[in-house]
Design brief:
Elements: E1 3-4, E2 7-11, H1 23-26, E3 36-39, H2 41-45, H3 55-68, E4 72-75, H4 81-93, E5 98-104, H5 107-115, E6 120-126, H6 129-136, H7 140-156, E7 160-166, H8 173-187, E8 192-196, H9 203-216, E9 222-226, H10 233-242, E10 247-250, H11 264-275, H12 286-297, E11 314-315, H13 318-329, E12 351-352, H14 360-370, H15 376-393, H16 399-410
Helix pairs in contact: 3-4, 3-12, 7-8, 8-9, 9-10, 10-11, 15-16
Length: about 400
Amino acid sequence: MLMESDKPWLTDRYWIPHYNWEEEVRKHLNLPKKVVIHDVTIREAQQAPRVALKKDEQIRIYEALNEIGAPRAEVWVVTSEEDASAAKEMVRMGLDTKVIACTRWEKEDVDAAIDCDLDGIMLECVGNPWSVNAMWGMNEEEMIRKLTDVAIYAKEHGLFVKPIPWDSFRAPLNLLKRFAKTLVEEAHVDVFGISDTFGAALPWAVMYVVRELKKVIPNTPIEMHAHNDFGLALTDMIAAVCAGAEGVDTSINAMGERAGNAATEEVVIALEILLGVDTGIKLEKLWEVSQLMQELTKVKMAPNKPIVGEYLFTYESGMVVWMLEKVSEAGRPTAFMPFSPELIGYKPGIQYVIGKLSGATAVEIKLRELGIEASEEEINKITELVKKEGSIRKWEIPEYMFREIVRKVTGK
């Protein structure tokens, strides 16, 4: 990453607000030096409606996660023999990305992870005491005891253990603290996870909970999981990290149950370039892995999706194209875009669409691409006809039609 002297907000690939680095803005933040990306794509994508991943597809995603530098990949092992077989194959590959199974608070689930020779488990139970009582008839002490005993069992068998009493944000804070303290002191878990399972916690609520948990387990990493039902998953991840959380659960393209999870690509870019926190992820691989996920899951992303959507680098408006060209000529195209396409490895690069809102600058650029010369008067006339045709079509003008308009005006 190339920076201009001591300006972390200004590089050759992005220009973001310097206010992000103001002491007044950052003085209350407790940012870790590095954040662990616990990628849940393989597991959560299959919880999305109408998505099923075959063994070879799961392995290909695992390879892609390893290529981008994700330290962990979460998988299923108890859902089917195919999933267990896929997890075993991932381990046999010997890649850097650790294979972590999502397990219930049952010893047989832990045994399944052990049988697959996995690196560790994400050990889950419901953290909301009302729900646990309704589902299992347990009280708070029984909840804590059951999860802790299973965590101890997993640690005794040499597994990395990350417990998450999910639905954490509808649980009493004193219960979360007791969960955390008991699991750390008795089971010696590696990290403690919390989850905004229904995505309804406000960012400052997330910061409050993380800070309070830090008081009881100051030497154990806290990691955050969230769903996007209210469109808050990304902000909740940022909030957790700002309060000191050392890890976040994310999924490529936000694939997951219901509205999905925090998107890996969105969280990583936000942490890296908005907060300046290292994730260890290869940013230039993000677009590529996003494309892979769309192809394998058959779930297409909206073109205006943050970070990897094609509209981030596609322009039609005449004034916008003119301004982008001007700042590009002056040597800093990122003065008029969120970041450069190269940052995330966006292969198509900047695209100019010819349509109703196109101006003379875009028409000139298109003519240059086609190797056609035209006078200023001709360019203005072509632009006029382009606008008219774009309005009729309500879409961009295909190249054959643009050439036809040019022939009408120039005879070429």
